[in-house]
Amino acid sequence: MSVIPSEYQPPISCEEFIARASGDDEESFEVGVLFVGAGPASLAGAIRLAQLLQSAPEVQEQLGEMPIVVLEKGKYPGAHLLSGAVVNPSAFFKLFPDLKPEDFPFYGPVEDEAFYFLTEKKAFKLPLMPPPMQNHGNYVASLSKIGQWLAEKAEELGVMIFPETAAVKVLVEDNRVVGVRTDDKGLDRDGKPMSNYEPGSNMLAKVTVVGEGTLGHLTQTLLEYFGISRENPQIYALGVKEIWEVPRPLKRVVHTMGWPLRLARKYREFGGSFIYPMGENKVSLGLVVGMDYADASLSVHDLLQQFKQHPLVREILEGGKRLEKGWGAKTIPEGGFYSLPRQLHVPGALFIGDAAGFVNVPALKGIHYAMWSGILAAEAIFDVLKAGLDPQSENTLARFDENVRNSFIWIDLYQVRNMRQAYQYGFFAGSLLAGFMTLTRGRFPGWKIPTLPDGAHPVFKGTRQYPKPDNQYTFDKLSSVYASGNRSRDTMPNHIRIRTDVPEEMGDLWVNMCPALVYEWAEENGQRKLTINAPNCIHCGAITAKGGRFTPPEGGNGPEYEET
Prior knowledge:
This protein is an alpha+beta fold. It folds into 3 domains: 14-83 and 147-231 and 339-418, FAD/NAD(P)-binding domain (3-Layer(bba) Sandwich); 108-139 and 234-336 and 458-550, D-Amino Acid Oxidase, Chain A, domain 2; 420-448, no CATH class. The strands form 7 sheets. Strands 2, 3, 4, 10, 11, 12, 15, 21 and 22 form a 9-stranded mixed sheet that branches. A 7-stranded mixed sheet has the order 8-7-17-18-19-16-20. A 3-stranded antiparallel sheet has the order 5-9-6. α1 runs parallel beside α4 and α1 packs parallel to α9 (367-386). The model has no long low-confidence stretch (mean pLDDT 96).
């Protein structure tokens, strides 16, 4: 028996997350330009806008006492940021032309790299790196540390950053985005005020820049409300990552495909792994799997534990240990060019970074695209303000779309516009098609390959078995949640929307899918019942791709990443 996750979607209307400004001065704050999310896209945009305003005090004066504000739902900037990461440094050079690579928060340049095809016991090294994946001139980094570093640079320029503050609703007036509503603090499990209750506020802005990352709650709301959804639905992957201290330095960047994923088309298992050096005594490793997989017993977290037992990986990790804050998970937008919103702006708001979907899957790159999208957004906003135009009027912010279309972001994504979609035909057929697409710079096959949302693919009850964790080399989910730094309040309200009246296949899908043990089967009156452990959530967003909906929890909850 198989089920289709999207058929069990809980009833959700975008109107639920749209609010009107109350007009109550005690509940409202006026800011100039509001960036939602302190990721690389928003922070780069805030820095670039602050730099531009330095040369135009008359424009800055228009933006009031708080000209640039960044909201971050994590405990601090970087707390919810996770990536591989090998970084193209071009956006850093743009923002900080007087600095050198050694001044940036990088571990070092990519000195060597290798790509392997794995079977369960063997590793077959490709003679050449696939062209899109070549990393000459790039640097190994921690996205969390990048976020922390960029936040410091932004604050030096006068940008105000509000951590522990979630944007839960979009403020819309006369079909214009005028800001966001922040979260209430001090609610109990039932959503009722406790003794420390603090109501949220309306943050009123001339421009709201949505940079909340992949599967963002406000992004989903605005795309539906303004009817600007994509040609192809966005599709996603889930990545789980660990950081290890090791006795021997790793001198190369490693990527793999193949085992432990199954290659037959019926499983729809697309993905791969990475192992990156982080200085002389640490490495990061992770496994990324497309969310359109078909087997409800698939668990990316447990597949990563299995992957670590491969001889190639074991040799790198032998004698090492996982760091105390050395684990995390996150979803990645993989749809590419045809999954971008039909327009990147609405009256009063822009979409940047992963919120828009600026990820080049074949190149395994998203960070510099995100940062450049923030930079281009800042330049468009500045031009609009300097010209004395109203950014909340129809199409005034369309110059951001023009900036992106005239940039390398558009060119790069267009050249690989069908490459991820090719793998829906299976690993071997997909690899062959991807090869032709690489050779022709995307001209082959000459048409758009359509896709379905991840949740629209049938899922069957599988029988995957995983090695029992020893909690020294391989780990269970609960200890891994602790290693994410998650200290969420146990009495917080539930922020996850799912139906619990679902077939066993659906429940198994969510139980296995979640890397943080949020969903569990429990017995109640002799019946199996699905339960939600919301405080375990590390905000990876996977549930939204596979039949449920993640909404923002109270600000300050979730993981506390430091080096992911």
